[in-house]
Design a protein that fits this description.
By secondary structure, the chain is of the alpha+beta class. Helices cover 31% and strands 28% of the residues. Strand 6 and strand 7 form a beta hairpin. The protein starts with a strand and ends with a strand.
Length: 349
Amino acid sequence: MGNKTLSFKGNHKEIGEQIGEQYKKWGKKEVYIAPYANSYYPEQLKIYQKWFPQFIEYLEGVVKAMNISKDKVLTSYLTGFLSSSHTKPFSQCSALAFKNGGGVFVGRNYDWVESSEKISSLLNYEFTDNSANNFTAITDMATWKIGKPVPQHDFVIMTDDAWNNKGLYISLNGAPGKNANIGMCVTHVIQCVVEQCTTTKEAIKLISQLPINQTKIFTIADKSGDLAVVEKSLEKGCFIRKSNEMIFTTNHYNHPKLILENLSIFADIPFHATFGRYHYLEYNLLKNKDYLDLDKILSLLTKPPVQQNWRGVDNGDTVTIWTYGLNLTTGKYKIIFAPILREKEIINN
């Protein structure tokens, strides 16, 4: 399965250069320009200049390394997710966070298209100019094609799950509702939050303010044990669930002001797994929370109903791409990439 860890060090522009060099090693010679990108770009640029200007600096590094025009690179990376977002399948994913005598823990299954199963990687970002928090993340290489492999030259490094050196964690789950709106890419939101915030409170405030392009559910936790789920609907608004003991989420809403939006799930997929996965996590945490550690979290997450294995277009093309347990108190983690395959790869620290 190859090298599963990519590490970058420097300021934002220097890290962008390093990522651009990695793209060249993968054979990338051009960038994708989405349909109608030019009509989206001016507004998108304003959003990023206001909320995440460091990402523009990062893209300037990509420009330098790849020797592609700045206009092309910025247009691609600030708009490429807008036109395609409505074509992506309704994702799965399960996340939990809790506190016990061993620390503050996070557990996570990331479920996505089979094409990302063998290519997903761990990322380490170290900023030498103190312009951002150092962080660890996981990327699915931005694969979205259904039922077909993705060549290396199409890989795009994005942060799907992340945690920083200050003990803040954030990840996202798919949710019912409107997509493809103008706004920041949700994986860029993850990176923005993990770079700029140190606590759950700060992260909630920033996510509540950020204009995003997709309806999503975010799981947030910090090492103090402040746990939250942010259910951000583009149509209904942003609603927060909080706990200092345990919290969990799958792909439906649980905030009282959003629960009726779940009816759309039954209309689209009457037997969607989100409800079974949610109650599986709920009952197991109620019973076993005080005894869980990294290995027991993995045992909990690597079996049905939370582990997904729906291969092929006819079955929905959704498999569990990675599973992990993370202790925010100690910084220790254990990640299983491609947990369903014989050639699974385990990374821990």
